[in-house]
Design goal:
Length: 167
Amino acid sequence: MYFYFAIYTKAEMVAYAKKHHAVSRIMNVANNTKVQDMRNQSTPTNNSHNLSTQQLGTLVALYQEPDWFKDGISDGMMWYGNGSDGFSYVTANGDPTSWLYFKRNGNDVTIKYVDPKEGQSVAEASTTTKHVTVSGLLRDYYTNQSQKDEVNGYANKLKPESDYNDN
């Protein structure tokens, strides 16, 4: 339940309550209401999902490059891993454009990828950084059961990068 409050002075609120013979009702509500300041805290949605690297990588890949990711998964050629810089990644193990790096910090996810502009070679391309939220990824790709099944199915097909040489 959410309450929306207008801004009134204490004197205006007391005068209103007295005028409407509502002091006892207001005091009853006030005594039985717990107010919790949630500013500067993540919401329960943000922390309620302990996503695996594979699940978060899948969500990031569906956000950033869904066709590339789905093609790689269907071909059995998509891996995941953890880098030494705190970033995890999903990769098709090709040139630098086939690596999608991501790092979670609470509800924030930093995404990095090599992004050649028109006329640039991959070697000339710069790295682009984006920020999305875990809650936004979950809202867009992990809300209903069919979405959850799809994401978890893809995540289960990601192979650990350590298995790359076994192919």
